[in-house]
Design brief:
about 100 residues; single chain; alpha+beta; 4 strands; about 30% strand; Superoxide dismutase; Alpha-Beta Plaits
Length: about 100
C-alpha cells in the first residue's frame, strides 16, 4: 500500500541546539530507506518532511513513523494517508481501445 506522510511540528522548536537528535533522525530515516518502507523523502516549502512509503497498512506506517526519534521526543507528528491509483483515465479510454 502506498502511503503519504506529511510532518507537522508539535511546538516551536529551536532546531539550532538539536543537532544530536537530528543526526539520530537522519540515521533512522536512512535505515527506513534501506528497508524499502521509505521510497521517497522531501522537504516542502515550510521545511516539513514529506514521505512516500510502501507499507502493509496505515497502521503499519504509523508504527514505523512512531519509532522516529523526533516523534518519540514529541517534537513532530505525521498526517498519514493512503494513496490509491488514479482511475480517471477510464473516463477517456474506450473499451475497444484497450
Amino acid at each position: 500500500m502506498k502511503i503519504l506522510a506529511i510532518e507537522k511540528e508539535l511546538k516551536d522548536v529551536d532546531w539550532s541546539n538539536k543537532s544530536y537528535i537530528l543526526e539520530q533522525e537522519a540515521r533512522h530515516v536512512h535505515e527506513l530507506y534501506m528497508s524499502e518502507y521509505l521510497r521517497e523523502i522531501y522537504f516542502n516549502e515550510d521545511n516539513n518532511a514529506v514521505l512516500i512509503m510502501e507499507c502493509k497498512s496505515l497502521e503499519h506506517a504509523k508504527e514505523i513513523l512512531d519509532e522516529l526519534p523526533l516523534v518519540k521526543e514529541k517534537l513532530i507528528k505525521f498526517k498519514i494517508m493512503q494513496l490509491n491509483p488514479y482511475t480517471g483515465y477510464k473516463r477517456i479510454i474506450k473499451k475497444e481501445q484497450v
